[in-house]
Amino acid sequence: MDKKEAFITAIQNNEGLIYKIAAVYSNAIEDRNDLVQEIIYQLWKSFDSFKQQSSISTWMYRVAMNVAIYQLKTAKRKVTTVPLDEQLSNFHDTENSGFEEKLQLLRQHLNNLNLLDKGIVMLYLDNKSYEEIAQITGISETNVGTKISRIKEKLKKQIIKNYNYGT
Amino acid sequence: MELDDLKNTWNNMSNEVQQQPHLNTEKINQMTSSKYHSRIKKIAYPEMAGIFICITGVAFTLFNFSKLNTVFFQATAVVAIAVLLLLSAISWISIRRLNVTGDVNKPYAATLKNFAVQKIRFHKLQKINVTLSYLLLVCIIILLPKFFTGKDITSNNSFWIFAFSIGYIFLLFYSKWVAKYYSKSLRQAENLLKELATE
Prior knowledge:
Number of domains of chain A: 2
CATH architecture of the largest domain in chain A: Orthogonal Bundle
Oligomer: heterodimer
Strand content of chain A: under 5%
CATH topology of the largest domain in chain A: Rna Polymerase Sigma Factor, Chain: A
Largest sheet of chain B: none
Largest sheet of chain A: none
Radius of gyration of chain B: 25 Å
Structural class of chain B: mainly alpha
Strand content of chain B: under 5%
Shape of chain A: globular
Structural class of chain A: mainly alpha
CATH superfamily of the largest domain in chain A: RNA polymerase sigma factor, region 2, helix turn helix motif
Helix content of chain A: over 70%
Radius of gyration of chain A: 17 Å
Shape of chain B: elongated
Distance between the termini of chain A: 55 Å
């Protein structure tokens, strides 16, 4: 299997993680499509640097989350996207099944967290172990545990606050 | 909704995404091709247009410099040229920074640290940009009548009364708006840096 074939297989096996990260880090559908495209472009560019010290999905998470952060630089300077939107339209079909509503709800909670907590909680939601979260984020396993406990507290407070304000 | 409830929502979303594959070989090939990677260039167009306008302004001022017959007007023109050049430099720096995607293999926390630092720098640049724009506006008000009609509006007493009173009120609201616009985002970046520093 040549490099390109190996890459395509890796992407197809892990496309779910790319779409989930894009969904969490962008609000508009056009931004999401741009981010998916940018993640795949950057994954391809740095595919040679994947040294198999971690699993391919751990490496892809790391690259994709980093790309999402770099993409934030341009998020508020939106221009028309490149002509890949049409080809990504399959992704839009999921809107019909309440996908967007679920995303909205998730974003509402995740957007109240800072970017570090947002990344950690996303990995936690995706059933990543503390070890993998530590590998991806670059913070210690102990700190991952502490942070997740704090995030739970933050979310509880947020719910109480929303309840008191009648939202 | 607590974290465990969020987890259920997340799992439902994951199932939906996984049930419907989106990426075939052709799409992946297109996405990895650099010809589709033109978004940053498009984003940089307004900045490039800004640089073009500033340079045109410098050329126009230099071309008409001979019409400025007093030291006051000449000094105002020099300030205007300096401001226009500085604004061009700021735009150029912004474009360069926009084009930089750092090492995507670094840990997420390291990227966040870099992002927060860049954001703080960007806000500082924007504040300088806004202040310089205000200064440029004052210079333009003084210079344009001289360039186009040869009239010296600064010799009119009512000009100074108008300039000081309206100008001061405008500056007051303008600076408050700028401070409000940037402070939240800046605070978030600073807090993120503080949190990352404890890791």
